[in-house]
Amino acid sequence: SLLDDMAAGHVELNTITCSAAVTACSNGGKWIQALGLLRKMMATRVESNTITYGAAVSACSKAGEWSKALMILAEALANHVELNTVTCSTAISACIKSQACSKAGAWIQVFSILADMSARHVESTTFTYNAAVSACNSGG
Fold first, then answer.
1. Which of 90, 139, 81, 97 minimizes the C-alpha distance to 113?
2. pLDDT by residue (tens digit) across 56-86?
3. What Rg do the C-alpha atoms of the chain give, in angstroms?
4. Considering the entire predicted model, what is its pTM?
5. Interior CA angle at 37 toward 35 and 40, to 5°?
6. Distance, CA of 140 to CA of 96 (rounded, Å)
7. Residues 6+ apart with CB under 8 A from 4
8. Mean pLDDT of the chain
9. 6 touches 13 (CB < 8 A)
10. Are the C-beta atoms of 51 and 74 separated by less than 8 Å?
């Protein structure tokens, strides 16, 4: 795996280097590898942060894997990782772009994310509120 290659190349495995690797996977459209790196970080006890989880949510969103994006967001919340507007908005975007999520009640997912954002004092943007309206209009 990439983390094994990094360790073999004497690259220190820490939050910064691993988050950069997850981000690179996300930017390259490699969502499965991004999630694999996140799991490997957990297994090797390398701390994940807002950037790590944000990149993993983004990778899933870009791939249309809305349920995985929501799962990663929930995992970040469970691990008490500080969320940011971009990560939450990316998860909302993944949900509203997916017809499967719309059929599964996108508005419920979106409003759950909005509630988490509010409870954690994460700033909502115009995009966030427009996404909520869009989810309601999707018939989900």
1. 90
2. 999 999 998 988 999 999 999 999 999 899 9
3. 15
4. 0.84
5. 110
6. 9
7. none
8. 85
9. yes
10. no
pLDDT at 132: 74
Residue with tokens 């975007």: 93
Q: What does the alpha-carbon distance between residue 41 and residue 48 come to, in Å, rounded to a whole number?
A: 7
Question: CA 108, 23, 32: angle at the middle one, nearest 5?
Answer: 65
Which pLDDT score is estimated for 110? Answer: 80
Q: How far is CA 83 from CA 5, 7, 47, 54, 121, in A?
A: 30, 29, 15, 8, 9
Inter-axis angle of helices 106-119 and 126-137, to 10 degrees?
Answer: 150
Residue type, 118: S
The string of pLDDT tens digits covering residues 105-122 is 667 778 888 888 899 899
Greatest CA span in the chain, whole angstroms? 52
Tokens of 114: 């909005």
**Cα–Cα distance measured from residue 76 to residue 106, given in angstroms and rounded to the nearest whole number:** 20
From 16, 23, 71, select the one nearest 48 (Cα to Cα): 16
* Cβ-defined contacts of 3-12 (< 8 Å, 24+): 3/37, 3/40, 3/41, 3/44
